[in-house]
Amino acid sequence: HLKGTDCVFVCLSLSLSLSLCYRDITYSILFEAVTTMLVLLSYQLFHKEILRDGLIYQYLMKGRCLSLTSQLVKTLLYNFIRQEKCPPPATHIFEQQSDGGGLLYGLASGVASGLWSVFALGGAGSKPGLDQEQNPLPLSNQSLLLLLVLANLTDGPNNCPNPYRQAVTCFKNTQDTSSIPTEQHHMFQINFNSLYTALCEQQRSDQATLILYTLLHQNTNMRTYMLSRTDMENLVMPILKILYHVEDRNSHHVYMALIILLILTEEDTFNRSIHEVVLKNITWYSERSLTEISLGSLLILVVIRTIQFNMTRTRDKYLHTNCLAALANMSAQFRCLHQYAAQRIISLFALLSKKHNKILEQATQSVRGLRRADYAQDLNVIEEVIRMMLEIINSCLSNSLHHNPNLVYALLYKRELFEQFRTHPSFQDIMQNLETVSFFSQRLEAAGTDLSVERVQEVIMKGAQALPKDRLKKFPELKFRYVEEDQPEDFFIPYVWSLVFNSGVGLNWSPTGIELFSMDSG
């Protein structure tokens, strides 16, 4: 009979020691050790409030377990990186030795055989659909879940920091030869290239997106490395697919994908480089055939589509605010926007304008004072969004007019949309630059009629070069940065445990006992 502290220590030791001799014969035992750690920590599921103490919590935060922190985090990350599939049945793994193999052999064989039945057939704790075919990487999945649980544990009493979060936020690249600061007790090194590849390849689940967010937001070494990559499309494209298929994703997954884009767009190098990456035949984008488009233009299309979906369905204020913030961060670096991307920017403004007019009409017709107050609040919100869209367009015009003839053409084609806002007190200052379209309109009229698309773009390009610089008013640069809430654990701990509940392999808890999150959000 093991005491609680011994059980935790044994699980950690097994996780570390077996990972060093990683073979089929140890896969099942290593999986069981990781799973046992999740079970030991699952007491949080049965409490509505976020727990900041507890027996298992204390064992993990101090004593013998504390010394294993960096090794455990490194092992869990490598389990995720390796993406090892579940080995064949135990009968093919263990060959009976002539001397019987002893007690340890029999124990290992028995554990592995039992666990294989969980992987392949589904045990008593398995949830429907969690079989080997749909979850061929149980150890990778379970390790990632445990890593997220540990990294999101609250800090200890007396502001004692969570050592597992510290380990996640400070590890370095194996290629980094600089010395490790002595004050960073949980520092370790890992192969960034292998981790980056795994992050790119596994962006299908909430937990893979959540660990990407965690590393981008909290580990400056990993963030710097990611932004230095010349193949950022491998990371960005899976995130765009998550947003594109917003109807099939839960709100938390969509939210984390958006935050990842927002963090990336904080960097001007990223905003410039995505317009230099040319993509061919984007088959998953079904609204229009995209045979050739820059990564930057595709990002704009997907973000605008997400805003439009949110406006017509969920109406989540935070979602469209983060979408607009990402577009605003990019706007000064818009380069050679695809014709369709430029059209979608203007069509989004048209949708906002239509919504603004509808609210205005409803407010005018309303006779009840309380209802009028509600409409006034709605009007203020939509006008804030319109203002931000005008600032995004203005930023593009004032910083990269000559790079975006398609946007100028789209503005010319739909210039009547902006007429009603020219005299509006909330928009008069920002409308000045948009009025420069009349300059291009005059040049196009002088060029004749029945102009080809190529000829229109040529006239606009020459007009952009001839336009006096003082005609465009400069405004402060649009820059938004992501900041976590004061108590992020109130969001992340229920979210992480909902992932464990729904995605853990071979784990099952009675839904009636869950208090941490509502089952419809889990």
From TrEMBL:
It comes from the Eukaryota. One of its GO terms (biological process) is Golgi organization. It holds the Pfam family Dymeclin. GO terms for cellular component: Golgi apparatus. Keywords: Lipoprotein, Myristate. Belongs to the dymeclin family. PANTHER family: DYMECLIN (PTHR12895). This is Dymeclin. The gene is DYM.
